[in-house]
Amino acid sequence: MTVTPLSLDSLAYEIQYGGPHVHLAVFIICQIIGILLLHYVFRIITYLINRYTQLPQDILKHQFIKAIYQAYQDAEIKLLERTP
Description:
Keywords: Membrane, Transmembrane, Transmembrane helix. It contains three helices and no strands. It is mainly alpha-helical. It has one domain (about 10-80). The longest helix is centred in the middle third of the chain and has 34 residues, at about 20-55. The chain is flat.
């Protein structure tokens, strides 16, 4: 099996018909968009809660971080319990 370098022709072919490089690029872009979207959703939620309850935003941010970390730990424990 010979490995050929990625030329403009093969890159154009992959973009037109799909290929591993295109799929990887789309996957990475979707991950970045998802992270940014969740970041701003939580930022808006903390702003709204702060506005209507007068709780400090830094406390709310720490609560979200703790909740996400706890959910991650719970999922990891469940995964470890399932493995034989």
